[in-house]
Design a protein that fits this description.
Distance between the termini: 96 Å
Strand content: 5-15%
Number of domains: 5
Number of helices: 32
Radius of gyration: 35 Å
Largest sheet: 10 strands, parallel
Structural class: alpha/beta
Strand order of the largest sheet: 1-2-5-7-8-9-10-13-14-15
Helix content: 40-55%
Shape: elongated
Number of strands: 17
Length: about 725
């Protein structure tokens, strides 16, 4: 039975130490569904019927960090929800979010990525942005007073300011202690936090249960032993040179989780780690259950001493160490378990543990990627299912680095492309994966700067589209409409130079044209049409298969709405582009015929004035050139288009003079003669129409004579 190393409640540290079961529970699925409905404006009375604990979960699903939500709907939701846990990021600082949060009773506060913020003038005293690459100076008193009312300050139990490289104002610790007397969870990872700050913090009346001070300036843990209730301590990337520097650590009799990862220092040209320093102290931590020694130089001798020194130790992490590739490490130190990357099951177990740590999960995913490439065959069904659910959990965590999500999509691609492995997944597993990939590809949440993408995650979009279009992962999931909407939304956001992504989106849409006409897709048809139009103009040399896909997609959109390209300027531009393409594909009769079919669909939508301006002598020469072609399909396609012009009674236009008629008369007759009168019935109707409606006596006589020739079948020489 796998030991539980931490309480079930969420803690505000850099990593969630609990070994979570990543298979979505019924409660999690219901909460996601409710969150989606809340964003759609439904469940208005939801806060009245649900407890605050569930409201917090739903609010976290709605308020994803770094998301640019629709301001109006978001404010309405915030006003309704009585949440007490909140994440403040640079997007919130630009909105009226602080005032709304101030009205709530907050017990846990996370300040996320404030170094990216453009702070409003009223808040300039709180954050002073230096030059690019410099740390952020944070007036913590001002920020806390801006977001927390007096009751919230009194009851706040969790505060996280990690990941900022923040420098605090003088005496900040003393001021914080006076303002937040109930604090039990504190995360200062990456902030400017010194030995003196730590001593001041530990000598206070606080009863901390979780403390994260990794990547700070701390080099001595003096005073830490005063926090007798401390259970979780994160000390990653710190440098301790002597055993005396960590001596106070052994006064923490309640400590259950300890992170000393990436802790190494050179003493007299010899590499030493904090784990080795711990073994030099003749003391024990009786309650310690989990020890993270990853990203260090750890050997068997050190592990042998640690398991004796910490008798209740249940799990050790040795990822990215000399022992990480040893498969039977757990057998040697039973009943203790090790987090390693020796094989796929070990990687999955480690990944499930580090689903909220970018550094750890990235290392593990690289190993998983290599194992999938080399040893995907023969993996057990349960192993693949556990891997799939772990990968979905990674994609759902919006706080992980972009590179981590990209590696995850690569892993899913390998699983999906190997059909025997994909078949090992249940339908619910594939649905979970597809839903998670859609979250990772959600273009609405791309960080923006001055209305343009600041960091466009194009590779995730490309790989996601390739995954959906080239594998069977969507089969029977009934999520095609969701993916289709994502593709059309992607087209709307993409810039002109991203033609590769645009084409992949168009290919997927072309293979699922049945979704174009659904009511849900109607608002997305305009960006789709504009994407087709721009792609035709951008790509001067398209492959035949590529051009056929675009033409068929264009036909589908025109069938749904013949006036799809309603603006005359757009229609003219489209016709001009199609005529140019017709020259390029004249030797490929089917593509040429398809081109003129589309031209014939667009032409009737032009106004008379636009037709007059459009059909210049230059375009007449194009038509005559195609009429003189000795390829039957080219001739017939051109003839059909020409007859469409006749149907529109184009002969009233002055530009169409007698010479043009004679040219077309002879060419049309040649077609009739050489191709077995295939168009005789159609032409007979057309010339009857011309003779009846035309006011020009010459045209009437010409059309009547031509009509007689068609009826009698006499060869015209």
């Amino acid at each position: 039975m796998e030991p539980k190393v931490v309480p079930k409640k969420r803690v505000f540290v850099k990593k969630e130490w609990k070994v979570t079961n990543t298979i979505p529970t019924l409660k999690e699925k219901c909460l996601r569904y409710v969150a989606d409905k809340v964003m759609d404006g439904m469940y208005v009375n939801l806060p009245e019927v649900l407890p605050v604990v569930l409201i917090n979960h739903i609010f976290q699903l709605i308020h994803m960090p770094k998301s640019n939500l629709v301001e109006k709907s978001f404010f309405e939701i915030v006003k309704q929800f009585q949440f007490n846990e909140v994440v403040v990021d640079y997007v919130n600082l630009k909105m009226g979010f602080p005032e709304l949060v101030y009205s709530k009773h907050i017990t846990k506060l996370t300040l996320l990525e404030l170094e990216c913020a453009r702070v409003e003038p009223a808040a300039k005293t709180a954050l002073a942005m230096g030059e690019k690459g410099r740390a952020v100076t944070l007036n913590l008193d001002f920020v806390l007073k801006r977001f927390l009312n007096p009751n919230s300050c009194r009851d706040l139990s969790g505060l996280s300011i990690s990941g900022h490289d923040v420098i605090f104002r003088p005496h900040w610790v003393t001021n914080m202690l006076q303002m937040l007397p109930s604090l039990t969870v504190l995360d200062l990872n990456g902030c400017y936090f010194t030995n003196q700050d730590l001593l001041t913090l530990c000598q206070s009346n606080l009863s901390l249960e979780s403390l994260s001070i990794g990547r700070t300036e701390v080099t001595n843990l003096k005073g830490l032993g005063l926090q007798k209730k401390l259970k979780i301590l994160a000390l990653e990337e710190l440098r301790f040179e002597n055993p005396e520097d960590v001596a106070d650590l052994f006064l923490l009799s309640s400590l259950e989780v300890l992170d000393v990862s990436a802790n190494y220092v050179y003493r007299e040209s010899v590499l030493s780690t904090t784990a080795e320093l711990l073994t030099q102290c003749n003391s024990k931590l009786p309650a310690l259950k989990f020890l993270d020694c990853s990203f260090n130089s750890v050997h068997f001798e050190t592990i042998d001493k640690l398991v004796v020194q910490f008798p209740n130790l249940e799990q050790l992490s040795v990822i990215d160490t000399d022992l990480a590739e040893i498969a039977d490490l757990g057998e040697r130190y039973k009943p203790r378990r090790f987090l390693t990357t020796a094989d796929l099951p070990s990687c999955i177990h480690s990944l499930m543990f580090y689903t909220s740590s970018s550094t750890r999960s990235k290392i593990i995913l690289v190993e998983i990627l290599e194992l999938l490439n080399s040893k995907i065959k023969g993996q057990k069904k349960e192993t693949i299912r556990r891997l799939a659910t772990s990968l979905a959990a990674i994609l759902r965590n919006r706080r992980l680095a972009y590179e981590v999500h990209l590696l995850t999509v690569y892993c899913i691609q390998i699983i999906a492309k190997h059909q025997p492995t994909l078949n090992k997944l249940f339908l619910s597993d594939r649905k979970n994966l597809v839903d998670a990939i859609c979250i990772a590809m959600k273009v609405d949440d791309w960080p923006k700067k001055e209305s343009k993408p600041l960091r466009t995650p194009s590779e995730i979009v490309v790989q996601g589209i390739a995954l959906f279009s080239s594998t069977k992962i969507l089969k029977r999931t009934n999520l095609h409409q969701k993916v289709f909407n994502l593709m059309t939304r992607t087209l709307e956001w993409l810039e002109d130079q991203t033609s590769v992504i645009k084409y992949k989106c168009l290919v997927f849409i072309a293979n699922h044209t049945n979704f174009i006409s659904t009511p849900e897709s109607v608002p997305k048809q305009l960006p789709l049409r504009m994407a087709i139009m721009s792609y035709l103009k951008e790509k001067t040399n398209m492959e035949s298969a590529e051009y056929r896909i675009i033409l068929n997609l264009l036909k589908s959109s025109l069938r749904i709405d013949a006036r799809a390209y309603g603006l005359h300027e757009v229609q003219k531009e489209l016709l001009k582009t199609l005529f140019a393409k017709a020259y390029l594909y004249e030797q490929e009769s089917r593509l040429f015929e398809l081109t003129f079919e589309v031209i014939a669909m667009v032409w009737p939508q032009l106004s008379s004035a636009s037709k007059r301006r459009m059909f210049t002598p230059q375009y007449l020469q194009h038509v005559e050139h195609f009429l003189k072609s000795y390829t039957e399909q080219v001739c017939m396609a051109t003839t059909r288009f020409l007859l469409e012009i006749f149907v529109c009674d184009y002969f009233h236009l002055r530009e169409y003079n007698r010479i043009n008629l004679i040219h077309h008369q002879s060419e049309i007759w040649r077609i009739i003669k050489e191709h077995g009168l295939q168009q005789r019935a159609r032409m007979q109707d057309i010339f009857t129409h011309i003779g009846y409606f035309s006011r020009n006596y010459f045209l009437k006589g010409w059309s009547m004579w031509f009509h007689e020739q068609i009826v009698e079948g006499i060869n015209y020489g």
